[in-house]
User: Fold this.
Amino acid sequence: TLHKRLRRLGGRVLCGANVVALTRSATGGVTGTIARIGDGGDRRVFTARKGVVLAAGDYTNSKELIGRHLGEAFQQVEGINEKSTGDGHLLAEREGAKLVNMDVAYGPELRFVPPARRGFQQWLPAGGLAARLMARLLPMRRLLVTWQHPENGLFDDGAILVNQQGARFCDERLWPDREIAVADQSGKVCYILLDESLSERYSAWPHFISTAPKIAYAYVADYLKLRRDVAVAGDSLDAVAAARQLSAEALTETVRATNQERSVNGLPKLTGNRWVLLGPAKAYFTTTEGGVAIDGQFRALDMQDEPIPGLYAIGQNGLGGQVLWGHGLHIAWAMTSGRLVGRQLMGVA
Assistant:
């Protein structure tokens, strides 16, 4: 792994060290960092010989940056990575760096919450001969529908959202109002209710609950089998409500009120002898696309597009105006930019 390689080269990773400020010389160059270490919060100064490289991820969980650049209405929406608090962006901004595309984000979107416990398969080695052997012996499908998001077609076809009290709270077809409303609910969670007709419709192509790597598409049966923590079926509203500790009385009233509304607007009513409840789900920001403006040497640029001496930015901190919407592009940029700035700082052509 990269960590092992770093250690073999004499490097060290200091955990529990939160960088709170950068240091600068009398001539204005960035010379190091000030970090708060461990539970005690002792501050230490670290001096850089080559430069300071910002590589602190995105700001999907920064209420300050989300509120400032996307709007206060989105501040309650969480980011998938709880550690993505925009530390690198804020540090760069304090030193006068220009931030670009800060109002661009992937999301918010609904996603099912991940399993509460790490599965046995997630403890297995990620590479090497042992990993290849175990891959042949152990089924991996259970991991495939983690972090997936339900398709909007569910709501266009009549599925509804309810909160932990069993009440409906939004127009499910409106984005991003739907996600903003979810983030304002108790526990920031919601559940998706499908009646018999919808559960049959979303059991075969072309109507799927979500995409899923390797198996391509996940249907109702896939969720009931592989994600029992977020999928339950029953022959009555009382049964599915009890399985998720929702009020059966409130859920029944929600369906009654929805059907009364739909007798006027023409949408299909919720009926039948089979019900499926999917969730809990939350509204999440997946990634943010804002970052420090950089030049071809990954140097952070100030508001006049001049390099800030000693300060570099890579990965999500150093997007430099790129918008990387696509599978794997963010990790690809993190690895590529990290390698290139490392070679540059070491003077390797």
Remarks:
- The CA atoms of residues 259 and 266 lie 10 Å apart.
- The mean pLDDT is 92.
- Residues 248-265 form the longest helix (18 residues).
- The radius of gyration is 24 Å.
